[in-house]
Structure formats: structure tokens, C-alpha cells
Write a structure and sequence with these properties.
By secondary structure, this protein is an alpha/beta fold. The protein has eight helices and eight strands; from the N terminus they run βαβαααβαβαβββαβα. It has a single domain, classed as P-loop containing nucleotide triphosphate hydrolases (Rossmann fold, 3-Layer(aba) Sandwich), CATH 3.40.50. Helix content is about 50%, strand content about 15%. A hairpin with a 5-residue loop joins strand 5 and strand 6. The two termini are about 15 Å apart. The mean pLDDT is about 95. It binds BIS(adenosine)-5'-pentaphosphate (AP5) and magnesium ion. Magnesium ion (MG) binds next to helix 1.
């Protein structure tokens, strides 16, 4: 049987990636993070990466026409399996396009989750985030034994994301309010569920799994 189709929404640093990895593992879903796909394209200097990098470094959204192509390609690649979308949709045209693509295949979104966290908590969290330069695992300085610790999964070097500098984080939060908050409203009548994103990571995962039942 085909798996669930879940969209996870929330401001930068709310824990979308952290929770999506866990939910995907638990429910046997494919995790699609558009941010990860874009960062990979930037590193490999593909056409998409070259077009996207300037927007990303400035904390702005990559234009919809590029994102629609990317998501169509990913969904086609995944086929019938269930998925959790992290970082898409982020604008109303993206949400409408996703609905259209799914309807064409007689599919629909089963759950839309919103992770809700205060802006000041986010600024602090993102100043402490470190990401594995090899396998992309996400850490926080607050839980590492030392700032020089290597990735616990693959031994790779842990680095700060270029868009995690405070000025850029504040711009990303503003962009979220202006362009992505309307997407939250768009799904309010379509079964949106809000989960508090402050508190222990395990507790939040348990709460998400509870509301998905
Ligand atoms: P993207 O990579 O999606 O960034 P984002 O949405 O800004 O979200 P983040 O990845 O920064 O945060 P997160 O919510 O995943 O939090 P995480 O789990 O890492 O996008 C990057 C850029 O790509 C965009 O700015 C844009 O340019 C472009 N882009 C991507 N998608 C696009 C689209 N659809 N359209 C246009 N442009 C697009 O957690 C953060 C930190 O907090 C970590 O250190 C983690 O360990 C820690 N943490 C997590 N949970 C907790 C907790 N409960 N308590 C304490 N610490 C916690
Ligand atoms: Mg993320």
C-alpha cells in the first residue's frame, strides 16, 4: 500500500529537518528537503545550483519557476512511495502547483504539520546549528561535547551553514512571515495540525506521531 503524504511547515530553525528525518524513518517515508536538494546542487555547481546560490546566501526564496521543476522531478522519481516534504511549499503558487500535480495522479496530502516556535528561540538555535559537510546530519553546539567534534554518523567535519549568520536568519524569518505564512493559512481549512516546537526533540517527535495517527 502506498505510504502517507505529509507536508511539514514551520519557520527556519523550527526543527522541520530534525523531525522529518525521524518521522520518515518511523513511518517508512521518503524525506524530501528542498533546502538539502538545493545545497547539494550548489555544491555540485549544477545549473540549478548556480541559479539558486545567490538567493539562498541572501536568505531569499529561490524563484517559483525553478522550485516547481525541482519538485515535479522529485515526485516523479519517488513514484508511489509515501513522502514527507520539508521546505516545500513556501509560497501560494508552490502550494497550488503541488495540489495540481497530486490531483493529476489521484493523490492528495494526508497531513499538513506546522511546527510553531518563537523567533528569538530560532535566532539562538540557528547560531548554534552545525551540519555535517559530508552526510548533512544536523547538530547543535549545545549538545556537542566540543565545537570541534566530528560527525557522529560518518566522521565528517561539522560546519555552520552560510545562511545561519544572524542578519541572514532575521531576513529568512521576515521572508517566512511575508511569503510562507499565507501557505499556512491556505492549509488551515485542509486539516492543518500545529505542534509546539519548543522542548525536547523526542517529546516533539512523539507528539507528531500521535497527531498523525
Ligand atoms: P531550508 O534548508 O529549507 O531552510 P529553512 O526552512 O530556513 O529551515 P532550516 O533548515 O534552517 O531549519 P529546520 O526547520 O529544518 O530546523 P533544523 O531541524 O535544522 O532552505 C534553505 C534555503 O533554500 C531557503 O532560505 C531558500 O533560499 C531555499 N529554499 C528551500 N526550499 C525552497 C522553496 N520551496 N522555495 C524557495 N526557496 C527554497 O533545526 C535547527 C537547529 O535547531 C538544529 O541545530 C537542531 O539540532 C536544533 N533543534 C531542532 N529541534 C530542537 C528542539 N526541539 N530543541 C532545541 N534545539 C532543536
Ligand atoms: Mg532544514
Amino acid at each position: 500500500m502506498a505510504g502517507k503524504h505529509i507536508v511539514i511547515l514551520g519557520p527556519p530553525g523550527s526543527g522541520k529537518g530534525t523531525q522529518a528525518v525521524r518521522i520518515a524513518e518511523k513511518l517508512d517515508l521518503r524525506h524530501i528537503s528542498t533546502g538539502d536538494v538545493l545545497r547539494d546542487a550548489v555544491n555540485r555547481e549544477t545549473k540549478l545550483g548556480l541559479e539558486a546560490s545567490d538567493y539562498m546566501n541572501r536568505g531569499l526564496l529561490v524563484p517559483d519557476e525553478l522550485m516547481l521543476g525541482l519538485i515535479a522531478e522529485k515526485l516523479a522519481e519517488i513514484g508511489d512511495s509515501g513522502w514527507i516534504l520539508d521546505g516545500y511549499p513556501r509560497t501560494l503558487p508552490q502550494a497550488e502547483a503541488l495540489g495540481g500535480m497530486l490531483a493529476e495522479q489521484d493523490m492528495r496530502i494526508d497531513h499538513v504539520l506546522l511546527i510553531d516556535v518563537d523567533s528569538e528561540v530560532i535566532v539562538k538555535r540557528l547560531s548554534e546549528r552545525r551540519v555535517c559537510s559530508k552526510c548533512k546530519a544536523v547538530y547543535s553546539l549545545s549538545t556537542l561535547e566540543s565545537p570541534d567534534e566530528a560527525c557522529r554518523k560518518c566522521g565528517g567535519e561539522l560546519v555552520k551553514r552560510p545562511d545561519d549568520e544572524e542578519d541572514t536568519v532575521r531576513r529568512r524569518l521576515k521572508v517566512y512571515e511575508e511569503q510562507t505564512a499565507p501557505v499556512v493559512d491556505y492549509y488551515r481549512n485542509g486539516g492543518l495540525v500545529t505542534v509546539k516546537g519548543a522542548g525536547g526533540i523526542d517529546k516533539i517527535t512523539a507528539e507528531i506521531l500521535r497527531v498523525l495517527q
